[in-house]
Amino acid sequence: MYTFETTGVCAKKIIFDIEDNKVKNVSFEGGCSGNLQGVAKLVEGMDINEVVHKLKGISCGQKNTSCPDQLANALKEFSENK
């Protein structure tokens, strides 16, 4: 289980597992529940690099980041530190 503290978004934490370079069991603490449940289901079983590629750089309103972008950051950090 890996926990990532977010910055600049409503969700405070992202928690996930990685198995064989695949994203598993993503959950967000806080944020827009329905949207984040959808994001978590969509990335389930996807390769880390594919998720980073698809979600990196997504913004939310006037913010220069978003919960999906923060998930990409979390996965990138995990990959760099494993």
From TrEMBL:
Swiss-Prot/TrEMBL catalytic activity: a 2'-deoxyribonucleoside 5'-diphosphate + [thioredoxin]-disulfide + H2O = a ribonucleoside 5'-diphosphate + [thioredoxin]-dithiol
Broad class of enzyme this protein falls into: oxidoreductase
Highest rank taxon of the organism: Bacteria
One Gene Ontology term from the biological process aspect of the record: DNA biosynthetic process
InterPro entries: CHP03905 (IPR023806), TSCPD_dom (IPR024434)
Pfam family, one: TSCPD
GO MF, one example: ribonucleoside-diphosphate reductase activity, thioredoxin disulfide as acceptor
EC number: 1.17.4.1
Start and end residues of each TSCPD domain: 6-78
Keywords: DNA synthesis, Nucleotide-binding
Keyword Manganese attached: no
Signal peptide: none
Family listed: Belongs to the ribonucleoside diphosphate reductase class-2 family.
NCBIfam families xref list: TIGR03905_4_Cys
Stated name of the protein: ribonucleoside-diphosphate reductase
